[in-house]
Amino acid sequence: MPSAENSRQPASRAPFITRVVLRDYRSIEACDVALGPLTFLVGPNGSGKSNFLDALRLIADALRTSLDHAIRERGGIFNIVRRAPGGTGQFEIRLDFQLHDGAIGHFSVSVGGTRGYVVHEEECAVGEAKYHVRAGKLLLKPSPVSPPASDDRLYLVNAAGIPEFRPVFDALSDMGLYSISPDQLRAPQAPDAGEFLARDGSNLPSVLARLTTQTDEPLKRRIEEYLGAIVPGLKGVENTSIVHMETLKFLQHIEGTEGLMAFPAISMSDGTLRALGILVALFQTRVNQRIQLVGIEEPEVSLHPAAAGVLRDALRDASQYTQVIVTSHSPELLDDPSIHGDEILSVVADQGKSLIAPVDEETRSALRDRLYTAGELLKANQLSPDRSAVPQPDQLKLWEHDT
Description:
Layout: E1 17-25, E2 28-34, E3 38-42, H1 49-64, H2 67-73, E4 90-98, E5 104-112, E6 118-126, E7 129-134, E8 137-140, H3 155-159, H4 166-173, E9 176-178, H5 182-186, H6 204-214, H7 217-230, E10 234-242, E11 245-252, E12 261-264, H8 270-283, E13 293-297, H9 308-318, E14 323-328, H10 331-334, E15 344-350, E16 353-358, H11 361-368, H12 374-379
Parallel strand pairs: 3-14, 3-15, 9-13, 13-14
Antiparallel strand pairs: 1-2, 1-4, 4-5, 5-6, 6-7, 7-8, 10-11, 11-12, 15-16
Helix pairs in contact: 1-2, 7-8, 8-9
């Protein structure tokens, strides 16, 4: 574990995404929730936790590559839009945000179709700057001389050339949403710039090399200390080369031997590799402050329950520097009085719909008074969403400007 001196943490940075509104996105019919610096999405497998994170990832993917690529990667528009009687035939996403400079705003988009897809509506506002597009037509221009709009791509890509909207484009496209794959970490990888960790962790050797060369040693040491607390005897991890490829080398003390022994990534367990990928995903933000949000899917998978406390400390530590969202169904990860009601969003499946909402006031009070931990309530099946806080679809407010 990091030393007491290294564990001193600054005041939490204000969260980047302050509110998420979703309608008819996969299993989510209606959702309107606030997010803080650290948020746990808690619920059983199949409840829809991953769909919530995927909505954020779709926006990031569509801005980094293209909307067409993001939709095709998910199997087409038919596999994204929730199909149910009374549905809109389109998915809608609204993200309220606060930028590093304190500017607040929102980004909203509605996409639908049958065989293909159409961007029905898109709106963005930051400070006094705003635009509104409907079916490829600019209803509210972002500037006197504005780039043209089309109905098959996000207008924010074009608006990124306007100074007021560039920070919004950068912050949304740089969101890091992760599902670490141990198999990818075992395989040698072609070197890259190592600026952003890939979603599956595949370029981790390059990212680790960048963290080593572009930061002071304590940051890499901090990652190694957390990893060593999860994996007894592990003292370090390094980038190493195999001909023209990169991979990882783990340094571990084995009882009964002198010095440290080196082990290749291929010989390490899933839990060790996943833990390393999660730690690098979290702490890369100390170097690359463009990453204002990190989402981790079920970080406890493949880890021994005794490691949950170390993982929880790392999540809390990282949330001082970037916004962190975690999906989980682990009582061990939540079994700590430091986790309070405002940090929990409960997710359940009900008649084919995902209900996502904060826990009710009685539960929040029990957590606030430390009568129970969130993990104890989860074990007792008492961490359910406050159904009165789940909005009806027609109650959602996705748009601010109409022309």
